[in-house]
């Protein structure tokens, strides 16, 4: 609830290499965040799908990393983590720092951006806002999913692949990325 | 048991004792004392003679680090198959036969046994009148069974169904009954059995040093061997009232307390225990109301603190609702009773909402608002606090037009308030659609703090020493709503039309604003100035010059004096 961290402005300019002399100058503006995006204690509804995907990605990545650290795969070549290990890994996935995630505005649509979230071609230049309330919101989103589904179910889905984990957390009729939710958000 | 096993069991006494003394009867009927400090031993004849009669006594002179076993509580928590007795004394009231007055004193010095013998002799003689008796307090020494808490969690559920109540009572030293209990076996990497329960009443001092005190309500055993109950956070703070036993097969016995707590397996046990506890509370059914009365605040704190189990905890919440003000109901029940197209859960009362048949949640406790704010939504429905950002209703064209007309009429007043009288104090001034009797109201923005929240946050800041005035929420300006039908407001409109800079009118606007701030629960930034302004109001109504520096009588006095001056 306390928003004591100042918003950090991170200028991330990705310019396409090549002769700039014969191109129009590249411009990008910082996303204009509304009241809800700036001050709400919770992840705004229109960014929940992105948040869910970020959480799924982090969980998958950390579990996969832990699995490769296992010295001996058990029978069948599969490396399987024990319950205490995957419980611990998932806990750490949620309590990580999340500072590498932020918000940017592309084609007047605000999206969460960070590891595991790039979909489709990247814009040539963009401005990302990180810090502030975003790490707390992502951490809480992660804990929410962990509590909803439980470590066992999440690990089972992970063993079936990254896609299975993402669809467990974010898909389905009530999921954050379901069709209904991805419609433009209504005026409050 | 083989001799070797006997030996190893015997020598295990040196784990806790510096010296072991065994007094036993020799084959030749003499009594001997064998004494050893583990490195050497001696055997001597017992100078007391044959006092044992039969059997053996083993005396352990305990090591300092094992002094814990001198505590009765520790012995009580030991689960061994053999009963453990402790020689203790207690006072009890016994009936003592009374002789004639002359021999009464003697009787008092008689021991209990002698008195009983006397009685027995009398009875054998038969036919004699039973002597009068009186009640006397006597100290009785006897063996008391210590480990009467039986490890019933080890046995199958069906077998011990009738024993749970007794177990819970002996666990909490016979203090009170239970509202709910659960006996389960958790499987997985580490298997553990547990019985946990919720007492009927809140333990004393539950919220003293909330979260910092260690509670010893959960006892950890490994294969029936007591390990520890000295945890810092076996259970999350908000469920620190749950008592019980956790017996695991998989934890290592020889770890120190701290290591046990950080052990990954214990993390798994903890998570499962919390989930089962919440499940136990959920299924309390007819006893739920009793539970909620005692521990409702704990559940609300859980919603605020435990992000992992928040959804589960939200289902356990109970509130008062406008449709049934005397009962409490769950959020789920509210959602079921919602109107067809209603997609928000309304908090606090708005007369228009109630008139249209919408049900509203009443937030009656200070923690309620904090708790609801911690929930992003419930069952897909968001919360709307109608004390902030009024509900927008669909309006007919006619109503819309009349509202617009009123807004136009009061536009000068609204602008004057925003730009002059209440400049920098408010975000904006608007015409209210729901005020009926009050002249005005103050509305926080959706993401700002209500007066209640502000007070809670300031109190917290006081405790932690942080300065929250720089906090966004604290600095958020509010929206000032005016009631166009109120005579005070209408009068104000007239006055500012005549003279915008009238000091009295400016003051009045500020007084109205600060009064309504006060009423809404916000803290006034400058109470002294407020006091002065309030004081000026009665002066005005009594036609006394509101300027505190003027003294009406002074000029008259001066005049009188000056008329005497020429005389001196």
Automatic annotation (TrEMBL), chain A:
Cleavable signal peptide: 1-21
Any GO BP: regulation of B cell proliferation
DUF3456 domain sequence ranges: 48-177
Keywords: Signal
Cellular-component GO terms for this entry: endoplasmic reticulum chaperone complex; endoplasmic reticulum lumen; extracellular region
InterPro entries xref list: DUF3456, MZB1
One Pfam assignment: DUF3456
Name this protein carries in UniProt: Marginal zone B and B1 cell specific protein
Gene that encodes it: MZB1
UniProtKB/TrEMBL annotation, chain B:
Pfam family, one: HSP90
Keywords: ATP-binding, Chaperone, Nucleotide-binding
Annotated ATP binding sites: 56
Region (Disordered): 96-131
SUPFAM superfamilies the UniProt entry points to: ATPase domain of HSP90 chaperone/DNA topoisomerase II/histidine kinase, HSP90 C-terminal domain, Ribosomal protein S5 domain 2-like
Record-level Gene Ontology MF annotations: ATP binding; ATP hydrolysis activity; ATP-dependent protein folding chaperone; unfolded protein binding
Biased composition annotated in UniProt, kind: Basic and acidic residues: 96-108
Quaternary data: Homodimer; disulfide-linked. Component of an EIF2 complex at least composed of CELF1/CUGBP1, CALR, CALR3, EIF2S1, EIF2S2, HSP90B1 and HSPA5. Part of a large chaperone multiprotein complex comprising DNAJB11, HSP90B1, HSPA5, HYOU, PDIA2, PDIA4, PDIA6, PPIB, SDF2L1, UGGT1 and very small amounts of ERP29, but not, or at very low levels, CALR nor CANX. Interacts with AIMP1; regulates its retention in the endoplasmic reticulum. Hyperglycosylated form interacts with OS9; promoting its degradation by the endoplasmic reticulum associated degradation (ERAD). Interacts with CNPY3.
Family: Belongs to the heat shock protein 90 family.
Record-given protein name: Heat shock protein 90 beta family member 1
Source organism of this protein record: Mandrillus leucophaeus (Drill)
Lineage of origin: Eukaryota, Metazoa, Chordata, Craniata, Vertebrata
């Amino acid at each position: 609830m306390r928003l004591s961290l100042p918003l950090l402005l991170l200028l991330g300019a990705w310019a396409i290499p090549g002769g700039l002399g014969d191109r129009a100058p590249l411009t990008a503006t910082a996303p204009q965040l509304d009241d809800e995006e700036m001050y709400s204690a919770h992840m705004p509804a229109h960014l929940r799908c992105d948040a869910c995907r970020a959480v799924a990605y982090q969980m998958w990545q950390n579990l996969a990393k832990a699995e490769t650290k296992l010295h001996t795969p058990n029978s069948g070549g599969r490396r399987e983590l024990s319950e205490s290990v995957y419980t611990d890994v998932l806990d750490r996935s949620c309590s990580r720092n999340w500072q590498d995630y932020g918000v940017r505005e592309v084609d007047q649509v605000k999206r969460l951006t960070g590891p595991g979230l790039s979909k489709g071609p990247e814009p040539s230049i963009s401005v990302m806002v990180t810090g502030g309330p975003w790490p707390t919101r992502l951490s809480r989103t992660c804990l929410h999913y962990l509590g909803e589904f439980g470590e066992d179910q999440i690990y089972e889905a992970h063993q079936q692949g990254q896609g299975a984990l993402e669809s467990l957390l974010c898909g389905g009729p009530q999921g954050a990325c379901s069709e209904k939710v991805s419609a433009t958000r209504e005026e409050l | 048991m083989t001799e070797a096993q006997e030996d190893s069991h015997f020598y295990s006494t040196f784990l806790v004792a510096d010296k072991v003394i065994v007094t036993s009867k020799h084959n030749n009927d003499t009594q001997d004392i064998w004494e050893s400090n583990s490195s050497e031993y001696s055997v001597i004849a017992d100078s007391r003679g044959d006092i044992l009669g039969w059997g053996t006594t083993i005396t352990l002179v305990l090591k300092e680090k094992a002094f814990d076993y001198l505590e009765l509580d520790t012995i009580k928590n030991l689960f061994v198959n053999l009963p453990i007795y402790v020689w203790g004394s207690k006072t009890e009231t016994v009936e003592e036969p009374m002789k004639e007055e002359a021999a009464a004193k003697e009787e008092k010095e008689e021991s209990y046994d002698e008195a009983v013998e006397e009685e027995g002799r009398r009875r054998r003689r038969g036919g004699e009148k039973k002597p009068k008796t009186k009640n006397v307090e006597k100290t009785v020494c006897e063996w008391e069974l210590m480990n009467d808490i039986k490890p019933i969690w080890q046995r199958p559920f069906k077998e011990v169904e009738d024993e749970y109540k007794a177990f819970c009572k002996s666990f909490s030293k016979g203090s009170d009954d239970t509202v709910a209990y659960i006996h389960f076996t958790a499987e997985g990497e580490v298997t553990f059995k547990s019985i946990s329960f919720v007492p009927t009443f809140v333990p004393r001092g539950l919220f003293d040093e909330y979260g910092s005190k260690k509670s010893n309500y959960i006892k950890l055993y490994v294969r029936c061997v007591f390990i520890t109950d000295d945890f810092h956070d076996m259970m999350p703070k908000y469920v620190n009232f749950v008592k019980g036993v956790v017996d695991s097969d998989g934890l290592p016995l020889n770890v120190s307390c701290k290591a046990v707590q950080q052990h990954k397996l214990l993390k798994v046990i903890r998570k499962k225990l919390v989930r089962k506890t919440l499940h136990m509370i959920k299924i309390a059914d007819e006893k739920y109301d009793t539970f909620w009365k005692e521990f409702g605040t704990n559940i609300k704190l859980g919603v605020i603190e435990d992000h992992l189990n928040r959804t589960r905890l939200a289902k356990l919440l109970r509130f008062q609702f406008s449709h049934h003000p005397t009962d409490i109901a769950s959020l789920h029940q509210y959602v079921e009773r919602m109107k067809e197209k209603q997609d928000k859960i309304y908090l606090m009362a708005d007369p228009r909402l109630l008139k249209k048949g919408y049900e509203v949640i009443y937030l009656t406790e200070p923690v309620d608002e904090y708790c609801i704010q911690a929930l992003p939504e419930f069952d897909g429905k968001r919360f709307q606090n109608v004390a902030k950002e009024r509900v927008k209703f669909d309006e007919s064209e006619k109503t819309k037009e009349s509202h617009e007309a009123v807004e136009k009429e009061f536009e000068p007043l609204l602008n004057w308030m925003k730009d002059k009288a209440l400049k920098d104090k408010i975000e904006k001034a608007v015409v209210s659609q729901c005020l009926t009797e009050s002249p005005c109201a103050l509305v926080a923005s959706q993401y700002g703090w209500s007066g209640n929240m502000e007070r809670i946050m300031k109190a917290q800041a006081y405790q932690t020493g942080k300065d929250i005035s720089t906090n966004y929420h604290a600095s958020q300006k509010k929206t000032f709503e005016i009631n166009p039908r109120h005579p005070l407001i209408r009068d104000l409109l007239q006055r500012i039309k005549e003279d915008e800079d009238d000091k009295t009118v400016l003051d009045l606007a500020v007084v109205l604003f600060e009064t309504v701030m006060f009423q809404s629960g916000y803290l006034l930034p400058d109470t002294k100035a407020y006091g002065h302004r309030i004081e000026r109001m009665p002066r005005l109504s009594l036609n006394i010059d509101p300027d505190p520096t003027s003294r009406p009588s002074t000029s008259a006095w001066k005049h009188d004096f000056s008329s005497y001056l020429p005389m001196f």
